[in-house]
Amino acid sequence: MKASERAVAVDAFKRIKERAESSWRELWKDRPVIMVGAATCGRAAGALDVLQAFKDEVKKHKIDCPVIEVGCMGHCYAEPLAIISKPGYPPICYGYVNPVIAERLVKEFVLPGKDNPCPEFVIAALEANDLLPSFNDFPRSKYEQKVILKNCGHIDPTDINHSIASGGYSALAKALQMTPEEVIDEVEKSGLKGRGGAGFPTGQKWHICRHERGRPKYIIGNADEGDPGAFMDRSILESDPHSVIEGMIIAGYAIGARYGYIYVRAEYPLAVERVQIALNQAKRRKLLGNHILGSDVSFDIRLFHGSGAFVCGEETALIASLEGKPGMPHHRPPYPATRGLDGKPTVINNVKTLACVRHIINNGAEWFAGIGTGNSTGTAVFALAGKIVNTGLVEVPMGTTLRQIIFDVGSGIPGGKRFKAVQIGGPSGGCLPESALDLPIEFDSLKEAGAMMGSGGMVVIDEDDCMVEMARYFLEFTQRESCGKCTFCRLGTKQMLEILSDFTLGQGKIEDIDSLNRLAEEIKNGSLCNLGKTAPNPVLTTLRYFRDEYEEHILMGRCPALMCMHLIAYYILPDKCERSCDACVGTCTVEAITPNKKRIKVIDQEKCVKCGTCVTACPPQYNAVVKLSPPSEVPDK
Amino acid sequence: MTLKDSDRTAEESEHIRKETGHVLKGFSRKRRNLIPILQQVQGRLGYLPREAMTGIAEHLDIPAIDVYGVVTFYNQFRLNPPGRHSIRVCLGTACHMKGGYITLDAWKRRLEIKPGETTADREFDLDTVACVGCCTMAPVTVVDDKPEGKVEPTRVDGILLAFEQEREEKGQEKSESK
After folding, report:
1. Contact pairs from chain A to chain B, CB under 8 Å
2. Hey, how many other C-beta atoms are within 10 angstroms of the C-beta on A266?
3. pTM for this one?
4. Which stretches of A351-485 are assigned E, i.e. beta strand?
5. CA A588: distance to chain centroid?
6. Mean pLDDT over residues A252-256, rounded?
7. CA atoms within 13 A on the CB side of B113
8. Beta strands, E only, chain B
9. A462: nearest CA in chain B?
């Protein structure tokens, strides 16, 4: 690009930025502002009702107070969340808000002259202050470092001004001053590796594609987040879509692509909606489209709705799907960087990888490489779920240990239960036991332990969960999602699933464990793509670390965690059952409980569907319903 | 009881052809448009009946089996008409651990259909979904596009009862207005 054209881009961006900043300043001008976290997780907890309640209340009292919908702050355990910023107070984050609390907050705090910040509903203040504890006082703040989640939950994702005022698109303006080679060089030096799971160096991928002769070139943002139990990509797209779009434009400039696609799962309707809005706004500001910021660079992004196939997270399958075919992977090489969409050079990057790009360009490769450890630079984003107190999104520097994430950031296991395992990397990952908790989170160390980084789903498992059942669950998932192309993946996983199902039914044989190991090896070797290559991981890791549970299922027909439905029976302890209480009788969903002559309740084992409703119904002072395994433990009358 | 293809009336077939044609007008005959076309047709009809699939195949000039292959490959597409109310049971990891499979059992028992099917009175359709990302509210069931948290067997009955009451009230209003 010529020097005169570069100056045009700088000036053009300056004007856009000034406009955005003035609208941002206007927002915060001497008035309270209410922000409600309304990403999908917040909405499931009732955030839209809370949003409406705030709006109604503000309207009723005729006060000047914008009520804004923002994305996800990551504290999903306390949804719905709201942040109230009132002049004279630090911004305060409230949790478990409902419409009644919203009404009270407006009446007692937001209204002019009111000064009660209602500490009983406060999670924390966003800044250190003398009045309330802040997030910095939380033990987790010691470990967390927000880079790509920084804006999430603090800006309106549907207003590009918010994004630009918070630093958005300045990296694009800067990148346009650099040559494409310089951009690639910077990304290479940063050590950024793909965040989708495989961990291929991003700069190298761009470099390969840049030097391919084929035209046109494409860039694809992969947001086909199919792992059950993972929601990082969804959250970023819903909370800060511009960070991904900016990363894609820079990538497009670097490799010389004219068109890009964002491939989003159709199961994420809100993410689809917000990305579309963001694309339209970026186009109107000339940050996307023909002659970006008045320069000679042109780049367009189209949105493609994925149709729900786990295998489409694999890059060659994703391309097949974009071309209108069933999402079946094909052999690599050729890698998409050489021959991808329509046979043209194509770079496919995960959403989180793309979101890192703006920070690398803005702060420099050295800054990024300074976070994390030697081989794994930058931060890792995890979605914490399962048996953990603080479910939600966390971002920590690479090298943080699993123990720090689970116990310090996630506050450990609820209900005083014992930690059993952590499942990382979804159906491709593995279950790691307590002994692995001090592993630092790095691409290599996790692989050695039998798991993998994956895209960032982290599900915590406690003593009430059966490892055999977990392995069966993940295998059922990969078996169902196997595209059917490779024989070993298609039929091998089916065989493994049948063996595992037999175990959970109490019909296993001890020699089946050897068959499982053999099948696992063969599936790994005989599958084209990573879906097949990693499908046996959950089975192999549970066999490696929890073999005793397998043996108990097979040899004694007993499920030690009391989870496998066919290996347990519900039983009402006669000496604990209260004659004058019929709570379980009324709630049993299949009418399997009847009082006997002494008015002691008895479960008809033939009718019982093992839904566990009677356990919940039985008043805690009696606690008469127990699970027994094996079912033969239930005494005859 | 499940609904069958042959139960369709002539009016419905006409409606299917019309809506499919309407969508096809907006797309060129490129194979690459197949998935967006299917998504839009399903958006209008709620499912992909045989007539729609053959119409799309003709438009794109590809064998009907290719269309059927894509439709059955992806989880998003359905071959049955949806019910008035859609029930999607989340079977993500977190939901599974907190008893999502027990909840699914309860829905199956009450509606007397399997996932992917619609009740004969077209009132409900049942399906599973891999993960809706509301793992903190597990076990989740998405009822009419609204994720409901902590849906255990007793809540299944509660949700169904609310629908039944709604239906009865509507029925009464109708008979009164007559």
Report:
1. 146
2. 20
3. 0.92
4. 379-386, 392-397, 419-424, 430-433, 457-462
5. 36
6. 96
7. 25
8. 85-90, 124-129, 141-143, 146-148
9. B97
The type of residue at A349 is: N
Q: Which residues on chain B are in Cβ contact (under 8 Å) with A465?
A: 97
CB B163 within 8 A of CB B110: no
Facing B133 at nearest CB: one of A41, A325, A587 = A41
- Give the mean pLDDT of chain A: 93
Chain A residue numbers touching B35 (CB-CB < 8 A): 304-305, 307, 321, 324
Model pLDDT, residue A498: 97
| Min Cα separation B141/chain A (Å) | 10
DSSP states of A392-423 as a string?
EEEEEETT-BHHIIIIIIS---GGGPPEEEEE
Residue whose token pair is 């010389």: A256
pLDDT digits (tens, 9 = 90+) for A581-596: 999 999 999 999 999 9
Q: Is the peptide bond before A333 cis (omega within 30 degrees of 0)?
A: yes
Domain with residue B127: its CATH number is 3.40.30.10
In angstroms, rounded to a whole number, what is the distance separating the alpha carbons of residues A260 and A212?
17
A324 and B31 Cβ atoms separated by less than 8 Å: yes
Give the residue extent of every domain in chain A.
31-137, 160-365, 379-462, 467-556, 568-633
Range of the domain at B155: 85-177
> Which residues in chain A have their CB less than 8 angstroms from residue B129's CB?
267
CB pair distance less than 8 Å for A268 and B131: no
The partner residues of A220 in beta bridges, in order of sequence, read: A261, A348
Residue A490 CB burial class (10 angstroms; 0-12, 13-18, ≥19): middle
ipTM above 0.85, yes or no: yes
Mark which of B73, B95, B128 sits at the end of a domain. B73
Compute φ and ψ for A319, nearest 5 degrees: -65, -45
DSSP string of A578-608?
-TT--HHHHH-TT--EEE-TTS-EEE-TTT-
Largest CA distance in chain B: 54
Q: Is the pLDDT of residue A274 over 60?
A: yes
Give strand pairing partners of B86. Answer: B125
The mean pLDDT of A188-193, rounded to a whole number, is 96
Q: Can you give the pLDDT at residue B4?
A: 57
Looking at domain A160-365, its CATH class is alpha beta
Q: What is the chain A residue with the closest CA to B96?
A: A473
Is B75 within 8 Å of A45 when comparing Cβ atoms?
Answer: no
A87 preceded by a cis bond (ω within 30 of 0): no
Tokens matching residue A369: 């490489």
Taking Cα atoms as reference points, which of A70, A91, A92, A94 lies closest to residue A82?
Answer: A94
If asked whether residues B114 and B153 sit together in one domain, one would say yes
pLDDT of residue B1: 39
The residue written with tokens 């320069």 in the block is A295
Q: What is the CATH number of domain A568-633?
A: 3.30.70.20
The number of C-alpha atoms within 13 Å of A382 and in the hemisphere containing its C-beta is: 33
Residues 6+ apart with CB under 8 A from A314: A327, A329, A529, A530, A531
Which CATH number does A379-462 carry?
Answer: 3.10.20.600
A-chain CB neighbours of B132 within 8 Å are: 40, 44, 267
Residue where the block lists tokens 């108990």:
A552
Closest residue on chain A to B129 (Cα) = A267
Substitution target in A270, A461, A589 with the highest count of B β-carbons within 10 Å is A589
Q: What is the pLDDT of residue A3?
A: 53
Q: What 3-state DSSP class applies to A511?
A: coil
Query: Using one digit for the tens of pLDDT, what is the confidence trace for A76-101?
Result: 889 899 999 999 999 999 999 999 99
- For B45-69, the pLDDT digits (tens) are 999 999 999 999 999 999 999 999 9
Task: Answer yes or no: do B132 and A40 touch at CB < 8 A.
Answer: yes
DSSP letter for each residue of A73-114: -S-GGG-S-EEEE-TTS--EEE-S--HHHHHHHIIIIISTT-
Closest approach of B106 to chain A, Cα-based (Å):
8
The pLDDT of residue B2: 47
